[in-house]
Amino acid sequence: MAVFESLGRKPWMGWAVAAITFAAAFLTRYLFSDVMAGLPFLTFLLAVLLTSFVGGWLPATVVAVASLLSASYFFLPPPGAWTFVWPRDAVALALFAAVAGSQIALVHRLTKAMRRLEWKRAQMEALRASEQLMFSELQHRIANGIQLVASLLSLEAARVETAEDAVAVLDDAVTRLSIVATIHRRLHDPALGETGFEKAIETLVRDILVAAGRDGVTVSVTAPRLAITPADATSLSMIIAEAVTNAVKHAFAGRETGHIAIRFEATADGGRRLVLRDDGPGFETVPDADGESLGLLVMSSMAQRLGGSLELGNAAEGGAVVTVLLPPPEDAPG
């Protein structure tokens, strides 16, 4: 059946088989006329059947009509004349037409059923491959998430010196793990492919502000659709979450309102740049990006994970600025 299906995809092959099988059927019937004297249509039925499998219903119908005319003229007695004996010839012609038509219809339905099965099999294979890819991606994301949590806990543990430190560190760890959970929930939302990274960032920041009880702080996000992997999006989101948390603690202290502007843009060299600015008083003393505070350690480690660098400063119009410079995607660490 697979061979017939392969041949049937070439229309010229179907017509070639029709011509060959009809010629073979006619020649065989002619050479063995004495043996098959009472079976004028036998070889032609085989030709119709084979053509149906290979060429489809149209070439098979042409073979059937040609066979009916040829057998009527050459093999129904008296041979070589257009005579019609009732009811003998009528019954013979009707039986041939019925059998040939049944063959063509049956093979046509069978071929369509086989094609449907092949299509469904191909769809099942594609679905299975997609499920395997999704499972592999899920495993990869879970592993990255666990690694990120382990890194955060390790950084938190390094700060513990007294029992009071342990309590504070645990509270801090709970907050950061909640942020990690929020990041994964937002970035792995199936709707992300439709709304883009910009919407995911905005929603993440709003979640953090609501959790901190700072509904009066507004946020604006500008992030065109740049190529970004889920792992990179997670690391960038961690940097954004830390910067927003620091702004809530320091830039908006004693204020009910405030604004955070976030830009994620391409650079001239093909890299990418993340810029976060608040409208607070800015840094009294701009800290070193490699400082010892946990927030800076988290942001710096996430930037290094992306193959980039972290920069801190004050904006000319006021407010603190956090900038992350990332290399072009092809130069980023694998």
TrEMBL record:
<feature type="transmembrane region" description="Helical">
    <location>
        <begin position="12"/>
        <end position="32"/>
    </location>
</feature>
<dbReference type="InterPro" id="IPR005467">
    <property type="entry name" value="His_kinase_dom"/>
</dbReference>
<feature type="transmembrane region" description="Helical">
    <location>
        <begin position="44"/>
        <end position="70"/>
    </location>
</feature>
<keyword id="KW-0812">Transmembrane</keyword>
<keyword id="KW-1133">Transmembrane helix</keyword>
<keyword id="KW-0808">Transferase</keyword>
<keyword id="KW-0418">Kinase</keyword>
<dbReference type="Pfam" id="PF02518">
    <property type="entry name" value="HATPase_c"/>
</dbReference>
<dbReference type="InterPro" id="IPR025201">
    <property type="entry name" value="KdpD_TM"/>
</dbReference>
<feature type="transmembrane region" description="Helical">
    <location>
        <begin position="90"/>
        <end position="111"/>
    </location>
</feature>
<dbReference type="GO" id="GO:0016020">
    <property type="term" value="C:membrane"/>
</dbReference>
<dbReference type="GO" id="GO:0000160">
    <property type="term" value="P:phosphorelay signal transduction system"/>
</dbReference>
<dbReference type="InterPro" id="IPR036890">
    <property type="entry name" value="HATPase_C_sf"/>
</dbReference>
<dbReference type="GO" id="GO:0005524">
    <property type="term" value="F:ATP binding"/>
</dbReference>
<protein>
    <recommendedName>
        <fullName>histidine kinase</fullName>
        <ecNumber>2.7.13.3</ecNumber>
    </recommendedName>
</protein>
<dbReference type="Pfam" id="PF07568">
    <property type="entry name" value="HisKA_2"/>
</dbReference>
<keyword id="KW-0597">Phosphoprotein</keyword>
<dbReference type="InterPro" id="IPR003594">
    <property type="entry name" value="HATPase_dom"/>
</dbReference>
<keyword id="KW-0902">Two-component regulatory system</keyword>
<keyword id="KW-0472">Membrane</keyword>
<keyword id="KW-0547">Nucleotide-binding</keyword>
<dbReference type="Pfam" id="PF13493">
    <property type="entry name" value="DUF4118"/>
</dbReference>
<feature type="domain" description="Histidine kinase">
    <location>
        <begin position="137"/>
        <end position="330"/>
    </location>
</feature>
<dbReference type="InterPro" id="IPR011495">
    <property type="entry name" value="Sig_transdc_His_kin_sub2_dim/P"/>
</dbReference>
<dbReference type="GO" id="GO:0004673">
    <property type="term" value="F:protein histidine kinase activity"/>
</dbReference>
<dbReference type="InterPro" id="IPR038318">
    <property type="entry name" value="KdpD_sf"/>
</dbReference>
<keyword id="KW-0067">ATP-binding</keyword>
